[in-house]
Amino acid sequence: MEHQQTTLRDPPSVKPSSMSFHRVTVPRDGKVLVHNAQSVAPGEILGFCGACVKGLSGTWVESRVIRSALLGTVTVNSRQNENERVIEINVSRRTAETSSINQPSLAFGEIVIAEVMSVDVLEVHCMIRVVGGKVLDNPISAVMHMENIEPLNPHLVELEDQFGARDLILARIMTLDSPVHLDVAGDSKLGVVTSFGPTGCQMIPVGAHEMICPDTFRKFHKRLSTAVLPVVLPARK
Question: What structural domains does the chain harbor?
Fold first, then answer.
């Protein structure tokens, strides 16, 4: 009895022959994949919904998968509900007042998460928000030039059609100058991972390089990271 009060019930055993990459058995009670005070990025998987696991503020759920909707910190709360224990997952934005981590140092070639601040004809201005999985207390100014986005045919690229203000991108550090120079060329995993529409809502990926605003149903071209999986939307009535 003591063991059941402190941990979720174990998932049903699965024979090795029936396991595959595409089909994973998820316990009916749900499963938590993160710990308290962990830093997470938008879209990161936090756990699986079930009878005992719920995703609340700062999260969104798709096919039982709980994902983070914010760049912030996880709070995992456990409470007793009648005859069972319920675990609630929340994500809150990280602020300088609540942050207690040290500022990580940057390294050449490291992959970071940056927020796009502005876009002009030749470059994208960013603020680095996450380094080595840690949310920075003080974001670092960065820039991404045309040749670090499309080195082969830079004259064919319209940056405003690929990036927008408030976009969160995965990028590689090229130089440690001030501002730091970032690069997304040559690696399909680098690019936009989260974008927000004109109404402020989070847009939904619906293609390899396309996102849609759920409020207006307007589509936008984006240089999406292949880490972002397109969602099949139901037909409009």
Answer: 2-7+26-93 (2.40.50.100), 111-221 (2.40.50.140)
